[in-house]
Amino acid sequence: MAPATSLLTDHYELTMVEAALAAGTASRRSVFEVFARRLPEGRRYGLLAGTGRVLEGLADFRFGTAELDFLADRKVVNERTLNWLADFSFKGTITGYAEGEIYFPGSPLLQVESTFAEACILETYLLSVLNFDTAVASAASRMIAVADDRPCIEMGSRRTHEHSAVAAARAAIIAGFGATSNLEAGRSYGLPTTGTAAHSFTLLHDSEREAFQAQVATLGQGTTLLVDTYDVEQGVRTAVEVAGPELGGVRLDSGDLVEQARWVRSLLDELGNTNTRIVVTSDLDEYAIASLRSAPVDAYGVGTQLVTGSGHPTAGMVYKLVSREGNDGQWKDVAKAAIGKASVGGRKSAYRRLNERGRATAEVVGIDETPERTERDRDLIVPLVVDGELQPGFTGADGVKRAIERRKASIEELPGAARQMLRGEPVIPTVFVDEH
Amino acid sequence: MAPATSLLTDHYELTMVEAALAAGTASRRSVFEVFARRLPEGRRYGLLAGTGRVLEGLADFRFGTAELDFLADRKVVNERTLNWLADFSFKGTITGYAEGEIYFPGSPLLQVESTFAEACILETYLLSVLNFDTAVASAASRMIAVADDRPCIEMGSRRTHEHSAVAAARAAIIAGFGATSNLEAGRSYGLPTTGTAAHSFTLLHDSEREAFQAQVATLGQGTTLLVDTYDVEQGVRTAVEVAGPELGGVRLDSGDLVEQARWVRSLLDELGNTNTRIVVTSDLDEYAIASLRSAPVDAYGVGTQLVTGSGHPTAGMVYKLVSREGNDGQWKDVAKAAIGKASVGGRKSAYRRLNERGRATAEVVGIDETPERTERDRDLIVPLVVDGELQPGFTGADGVKRAIERRKASIEELPGAARQMLRGEPVIPTVFVDEH
């Protein structure tokens, strides 16, 4: 059995359940919504990731003996609440944007309909997964946009928490990265993994030549040799001497990459290694990748800036109660008025308005009713969990494949400005339609 | 049995082992070092966290059937390497700075001495843990410095990966936070957890008054009521009416906190609630906390900026081979020359030079030999694992307690400038002493 995910939450989710049970309001039917009030400054769109992981962990969101004993020992909640938690499994319905979908401010990314108590205790877990994974996917998508079809490799594991690293690899691949260095991501989600050698491998050996010989003997001539441990020019010459004309690639990990890529390309060509690829790594972000567009680079390895969301390590999504039953059994839309943090009450529908060329022109969000739409407009909300039943296709390796397809189709619809690095407003506006 | 940590690593760590096994260099004795080339820009010191978590996961860094099957299926490594991995458990020695210690550029935070292969495969895992935990602890420490002994509560779980959240809570408490909202952190490390209610709890009920009544009925008058769902003044008045003079606290989560705290304090005093505390939350970072110094605030709840390292979500530590045996059995110091990424070869010793008033004046790092020191100077390096044996006291709840003590003593030694928000150079210089 997988470890329970139920304590990956905030203390107050459980004290709220306790108070609501005592007040007789815990069983009120409720709709909670996940959305982002804004995109990170200057970003033109966001890329949703994490939905599959949310659903994977939902099955393990149970309170077993270990969890209940802890809550009892610490007196976090009372006996009645402990009994409620012991019986808990999510029986409600979750709808939302498919993983890999593009989103904008106010897009209703996930809606949870259930009793208040059931939806309440999921808050922290849902937001943790979606905020991290989406931050990485959104940054990754910008890198892909300027990589001009050159392959990008995710290699940031060492720059983030050891488990975040696995999620980051998954999110990067959903966004368009071709491979990851992270082995657990390979195992959990069937992702392609890749890697050759670090500087330490060169330093271990008595000479760079011996290190290259050892690597080629094991990984073959098609491997990529890291040539900047000592002198780059000598490194390239030695690499070619050792591996011959079939050398797969050389990796540059320091210095002025634009200039270096140019003369290394010339040198490789001069030595007859016209098919040897140049892979660059060294602290790349979307701006550095864009600046390498004209340089003879064949692949990018991206680490720190990818797994930390390139300046925006969290997506800023919130989880708000937007509608609930009252004493009288009637639904009532609710919203808080807090300054700068107001929310829009009501159950949402959403579609992407597309013009005759199939390009997106608006994010249309209906409040309580589905606004009129043309045949071209695309419905954005899909059922993920229905009355506690996980819908098929969203989790595991299949979920990743499906998210990749969704991302490709959704990116294709975006106006060209989305693929530019210029800061600006969201590339299409969010239009709220209230039928009341 | 805890899940294996051994695939939380980069593909290339294993291909390097394979190539080194084939070349006969895998068993060369080696020293790897973890250090940071620099602190985040403008920061005056760093606070090391994660060491205990590294050691906890080290015991589970084993390759069982599931891991080996994956590596074999994917042909990541060959049969010989699979056999080596199947037998692997770390038998080497790890020394380093104690968790909770202050550090500076070049401080030798961890040194791993073992065969090359054994040390090599730990790289990604060690760095993931230390880079994340230290980023959070370093940011947290700056917040504590300006909080002037007002309690700080960690509540950022929803803004980072669900497991990072647990590590972030642990790191925050090592840095001086008084409690966390994260329940799993409470369970795993014995940390105090806390929490009351969110806006959704108020919105669930037919009025703010009913919500407050429900909360007070369950959590008692000593609870903290969230008063900004609708109108703050009305919220405060209702809170006092419902809970009476013994109301524990009110929470402000939006708006201009400095101004609001002032008039809410006046209002509470006027209503006779002179002991009711004011807790502020709303996107605080160290600058916002510093700006609230003169406001009548009693506690800070910190989320996003804490768990994302307040602008620096990773500590930038690297893991470098600094010395290794050669063919002749002689140790040889090694370092790469890569532009901007050069490293200092050689096994390190380190102590903090203290003046007659017990204040730190320099970080002294010896290369291959321990430099002369006075009686006052404090040795920074402690044994963590000796010949594969974990040394006691560094892991679990005990490890956290010990790290808190270390942090208190080490912060006390720092010059006063460390506690200011002004950007600047590291508050003491790192001095390398090479006896050769």
Automatic annotation (TrEMBL), chains A, B:
It catalyses: 5-phospho-alpha-D-ribose 1-diphosphate + nicotinate + ATP + H2O = nicotinate beta-D-ribonucleotide + ADP + phosphate + diphosphate. Residues 153-343 form the Nicotinate/nicotinamide phosphoribosyltransferase domain. Keywords: Glycosyltransferase, Ligase, Phosphoprotein, Pyridine nucleotide biosynthesis, Transferase. GO terms for molecular function: glycosyltransferase activity; nicotinate phosphoribosyltransferase activity. GO terms for biological process: NAD+ biosynthetic process via the salvage pathway. One of its GO terms (cellular component) is cytosol. Gene3D superfamilies: Aldolase class I, nicotinate phosphoribosyltransferase. It holds the Pfam family NAPRTase. Transiently phosphorylated on a His residue during the reaction cycle. Phosphorylation strongly increases the affinity for substrates and increases the rate of nicotinate D-ribonucleotide production. Dephosphorylation regenerates the low-affinity form of the enzyme, leading to product release. Its EC number is 6.3.4.21. Residues 7-131 form the Nicotinate phosphoribosyltransferase N-terminal domain. Pathway: Cofactor biosynthesis; NAD(+) biosynthesis; nicotinate D-ribonucleotide from nicotinate: step 1/1. Belongs to the NAPRTase family. Catalyzes the first step in the biosynthesis of NAD from nicotinic acid, the ATP-dependent synthesis of beta-nicotinate D-ribonucleotide from nicotinate and 5-phospho-D-ribose 1-phosphate. This is Nicotinate phosphoribosyltransferase.
